[in-house]
TrEMBL record:
The species this protein was found in: Dyadobacter fermentans
Composition-biased stretches (Polar residues): 1-12
Keywords on record: Hydrolase
A GO term for molecular function: hydrolase activity
Taxonomic lineage: Bacteria, Pseudomonadati, Bacteroidota, Cytophagia, Cytophagales
Keyword DNA repair annotated: no
Region (Disordered), start-end ranges: 1-26
PANTHER family (UniProt xref): HYDROLASE TATD (PTHR42658:SF1)
Residue runs in coiled coils: none
Pfam families to which the protein is assigned, alphabetical: TatD_DNase
Xref: SUPFAM superfamilies: Metallo-dependent hydrolases (SSF51556)
Protein name from the UniProt record: Metal-dependent TIM-barrel fold hydrolase
Length: 342
């Protein structure tokens, strides 16, 4: 017999256990429609979101909320991969089909390439993945090596993290670090120490999934500090506003890390609206929700803001390898016109 499950299942990829998990912050009472006017005309860049797991509705909503570009880091997909082919197909989709799909909704798509920490623990497979990674990191629109780093902080994770730091150095690409959700403080410090040990300039490293306990040290050591806005957990956007109030906008960026678990692809525009409500300046909001991500990942030489800063042209009749996002009989829609469905 199956009992009714009313509990919220944590997202095992990006979720952080927290006693505060079920405390709804006050701003949840404010409907999105009530505050989307606050961010009218703003542009956003989400430097961490896993679109392969998201729907066309998400793409539409993101476009309407002002997200003009995003970065999709290579990650695990929930189901452990059993062979090299699925890695190849996944990496190919990040520079191929998914980028095309994003373009069809007016959003410029970039990605980072890497072997994620969790699957680094499958060493026979990890060895093979390391052999093919150089075939992907030099492709157009690849703006970094990521997301790499620690999960359980095992020796295998460290081994493949170090190898990929060397790869990033060789390719002159920024590094996007996934910090562990368990033992975060220790894992974050260890990730940074190892990057420095490999002679990597901290201004080329984006340390992700920060919280109040890690941010000071990350900034003090010259790294970029990225924050993931997680629904129902520690780093909600009320907390994010306080971080920005305390530390200012320099080298701080926010992202949604939305994936196949409970997450919110509109985390950035919503947080921008909340910042606006709290009296944070437009320039600070612009830096943490748009410009800083461009400056950090732009070191790859792969980001040309003229591609998206004044809107991204959409032609939904385009095809990718003969495949389009339109289904039988559908007419291509202008992206801004989603209210009426016919
Ligand atoms: Zn991620």
């Amino acid at each position: 017999m199956c009992a009714n499950h009313t509990e919220i299942t944590p997202n095992p990829s990006h979720f952080e256990d927290s006693e505060e998990a079920n405390q709804a912050p006050a701003h949840r009472d404010i409907a999105w429609n009530d505050y989307k006017d606050l961010i009218k005309g703003m542009r956003f860049f989400d430097p961490h979101i896993h679109m392969v797991s998201r729907t066309t509705d998400d793409y539409q909503a993101m476009n309407q909320a002002g997200i003009v570009a995003l970065i999709e880091p290579a990650f695990w997909v929930g189901q452990p991969r059993t062979g090299l082919s699925t890695f190849k197909d996944y990496y190919s989709s990040l520079v191929g089909w998914e980028r095309f799909r994003s373009s069809q909704f007016g959003i410029k798509h970039y990605c980072t390439m890497g072997l994620n920490s969790r699957e680094a623990n499958n060493e026979p497979l990890a060895e093979q993945v390391m052999e093919i990674l150089p075939l992907y990191i030099y492709k157009e629109g690849v703006v970094g090596v990521g997301e790499i780093g620690f999960d359980d902080q095992t020796p295998a994770e460290e081994k493949y993290y170090r190898l990929q730091l060397e790869l990033a150095k060789e390719a002159k690409l920024p590094v996007q670090i996934h910090t562990p959700h368990r033992d975060k403080k220790k894992g974050t410090e260890r990730s940074m120490a190892i990057a420095l040990e490999h002679g990597i300039d901290p201004s080329w490293v984006i340390v992700d999934h920060n919280n109040e306990e890690t941010v000071k040290s990350v900034l003090d050591q010259g790294f970029w500090a990225a924050f993931t806005i997680y629904p129902f957990t520690k780093m909600g956007n009320e907390r994010m506003v306080k971080v920005v109030e305390q530390y200012g906008p320099e080298r701080i960026m926010i992202n949604s890390a939305a994936d196949w678990g409970i997450s919110d692809p509109l985390a950035i525009p919503k947080t921008a609206a909340l910042m606006k409500m709290r009296g944070i300046s437009d320039e600070t909001i612009r830096l943490v929700t748009y410009q800083n991500a461009i400056d950090a990942f732009g070191k790859s030489g792969q980001i040309d803001v003229t591609d998206f800063e004044s809107g991204y042209a959409v032609d939904q009749t385009e095809k990718f390898h003969g495949n389009s996002i339109l289904r039988g009989g559908q007419q291509p829609a202008p992206v801004k016109d989603f209210l009426v469905i016919n």
